[in-house]
Request: fold
Amino acid sequence: MPAVPFSQQVVQLKFEHVSLEASQQAPDLKTAKKCVVQLQELVFLELSKAISDRLISSVNYLRESVVGTLKRCLERLEESVHGVWVYVSLSWSGL
Reply:
């Protein structure tokens, strides 16, 4: 299911415990504060989702990078150890 754009989420937001009258009159301060708090909660929720998605993506990238580096290091170490064993076996055979 595609993500709903944030602007559309704001438009569709149903304010809880707030009665906005159709009288075109500005809401009182208490009502306005309730609306602001609910809008802030929506913004913080979306922000936290975006941050967590980016953080997870960064961690996955770092994990793949570290695993790749470790794999290359182990391969080179194995090549070095193999070279040492070849040298030792040649040295022993020459005695």
Summary: Residues 30-93 form one domain. Residues 85 and 91 are 10 Å apart (CA to CA). The mean pLDDT is 85.
